[in-house]
Amino acid sequence: MIHSTGGKHVPRLPACQSCYTKKIKCDNARPKCMPCVKSGHACFTVSLGGTVPVSRE
Prior knowledge:
CD2-Gal4
């Protein structure tokens, strides 16, 4: 029988649009993730509906 460790699963935030497009690891830092800081790109996600860009700043 397999027993649970009792830990709760913490949902991850979605990657920002830039990291998602480049298929790289997003650290979800605020106001900008490190990959966006290094590349100089705007850091934003898409709303839950999937159509409206939402700034992370």
